[in-house]
Write a structure and sequence with these properties.
heterodimer, A: alpha/beta, Rossmann fold
Chain lengths: 275, 256
């Protein structure tokens, strides 16, 4: 698939890329409250979607369902027009913990997806130089130039998280799933990484699903924010973020931005009190 | 002398000090050499019986190494099976724990009935006593892969084998090498026990004969030889561990 095809046209809505339709899922044996129930949402191709909600509302379950790591008890999930029946293979993932492999250098950590995903897997050995170049370029984009030979423990938490984002993107996935990727970072590093992910999304037109607790983060990064109810989770509100792109961090100090965050907060408060 | 030099010298200072105190106590209290020979008498015995000690030490070393290699092979295979499959883990773990609880001295007579007096009981005892920590550690390394890492791998379409080879095996290496340090000293205990009871060679056998002769200095000399061999074997495995899993020590990865 060429880059031109991936890019959503400026006019008219892009086709739906990830869709969940009336999805219900529960862990363990029957009897417990389902993690999600009647969850319906649609994310368009190339869109940056954020999912917010009170803790335990099934946000992480949503991630696992959309990537085919778990299968729902009921309802349908489709990604890229296909019903999800096994792990989707086109997703890159990043979590709150960087989850880099400590015995690999940063460069080798970035190579990991390429060792698994076809067609890279069979091309990697013969085209090593090309892939190393790609990894180095990606590291430079996130401000980790010259760090490829270092081991994860030689990097700060924020730098490890940057490397983790690179690993999620190296195989050029169509879908990027981020599960509270900035949750463990200090406020300044977090804002820096917001800009990193903003630029990566702008450059690659990848579809992003960001699960977060942070309403400012959701409002700053996303095109659309889904608010989930308390367990059993489902979407109770959906907010289109109309802020023009590219967005500067300054936008987070405008009254317009404050209003958006305030509105989102209202939904969450309702969701919490309903439980 | 700065602190680093002091730290380096500390093992020698303490070891030499230990023997000096021992010597002093023996002289001061007039302890009979039949009860506790002085280090100087032990040193004399070490010298007098040097060829015998060297011969039997070499035999013990050989038995220990053979049993240890068996334990490593078996421990790796078994540990990987336990770590990769929850079914195998649930099924075999009670059996393994039960077996490990049996004092291996009690197994030696059975081995003698099966294989007669000789080298085989020593190798097998060394093996039986030392494989357990390897199994447990390798299994732990594999079974404790972070769920997020597994999710990352599976979302890329990685097979179970991919995950074991790319994450499980490297991840369990520090556990594996950590267990080797324990296993090598255990293997050593195993071979000496078997030699003591059922062999014509080895430090264990030498001690059995020295004990029958009331040759207490030789008994202690043999103990010293055992101790030195043990330290050397431990240091060797510790060295291999440090070389191969430097990342684990630096990233403060949980190692056994």
């Amino acid at each position: 698939m060429s880059l031109a095809e991936k890019t959503a046209p400026a006019s008219g809505p892009a086709p739906v890329f990830v869709s969940l339709d009336g999805v219900t899922h529960a862990y363990g044996t029957s009897g417990g409250i389902p993690a999600v129930e009647g969850l319906t949402l649609a994310i368009r191709k190339g869109e940056f979607a954020a999912v917010v909600g009170p803790s335990g509302c099934g946000k992480s379950t949503l991630m696992k369902l959309a990537t085919g790591l778990q299968f729902p008890r009921g309802g349908t999930i489709s990604v890229a027009g296909e019903v999800v029946r096994r792990p989707v293979k086109i997703a890159g993932m990043a979590f709150q913990a960087p989850t880099l492999l400590p015995w690999r250098t940063i460069l080798d950590n970035l190579m990991l997806p390429l060792e698994i995903v076809e067609p890279h897997r069979s091309r990697l050995r013969t085209n090593k130089a090309e892939y190393v170049e790609r990894a180095e370029a990606l590291l430079e984009q996130v401000g980790l130039r010259g760090m490829s030979g270092k081991f994860p423990w030689e990097l700060s938490g924020g730098m490890q998280q940057r490397a983790s984002l690179c690993r999620a993107l190296i195989h050029e996935p169509d879908l990027l799933m981020l599960d509270e990727p900035f949750g463990a970072l200090d406020a300044f590093t977090r804002e820096e990484l917001w800009c990193v992910i903003r630029d990566l999304h702008a450059r690659r037109s990848v579809t992003v699903v960001l699960v977060t607790h942070d309403l400012r983060e959701a409002a700053f990064l996303a095109d659309r924010v889904f608010c989930m109810s308390a367990r059993p989770g489902r979407v109770i509100a959906e907010a289109e973020i109309g802020l023009a792109r590219p967005r500067d961090l300054e936008v987070t100090y405008t009254p317009e931005f404050a209003d958006i965050v305030h509105e989102l907060r209202g939904h969450i408060v309702t969701a919490r009190s309903a439980s | 002398m700065n602190e680093r030099m002091l730290l380096k010298a500390a093992p020698w200072i303490f070891t030499i000090g230990f023997f000096l105190v021992w010597e002093a106590v023996c002289i001061a209290l007039g302890v009979s050499s039949y009860v506790l020979p002085r280090p100087s008498a032990v040193a004399q015995a070490l010298w007098d019986y040097r060829s015998q000690l060297a011969f039997h030490s070499a035999h013990t070393l050989w038995m220990t190494t053979a049993g240890f290699i068996l334990a490593v092979l078996f421990g790796l295979v078994m540990g990987m099976a336990l770590g990769a499959s929850r079914l195998v883990h649930a099924g075999t773990y009670p059996l393994l724990v039960g077996f490990n609880a049996i004092p291996k001295v009690a197994v030696v007579p059975i081995l003698v009935i099966w294989f007669g007096v000789g080298w085989l009981p020593a190798v097998l005892t060394a093996f039986l006593i030392s494989f357990f920590p390897i199994v447990v550690n390798v299994a732990t390394g594999l079974a404790t892969i972070e769920p997020e890492v597994e999710d990352v791998m599976r979302a890329l379409g990685a097979s179970k084998l991919d995950i074991i080879l790319k994450v499980g095996v490297p991840r369990s290496l520090p556990y594996f090498f950590g267990s080797l340090k324990v296993a090598i000293t255990l293997a050593y205990v195993g071979s000496v026990i078997a030699e003591y009871n059922a062999s014509n060679f080895g430090i264990g056998n030498l001690m059995a004969r020295a004990s029958a002769d009331f040759n207490v200095p030789l008994l202690f000399a043999a103990l010293i030889a055992l101790g030195v061999l043990g330290v050397v074997l431990y240091a060797l495995t510790a060295h291999v561990e440090a070389r191969t899993t430097r990342w684990a020590q630096r990233s403060q990865f949980a190692a056994g």
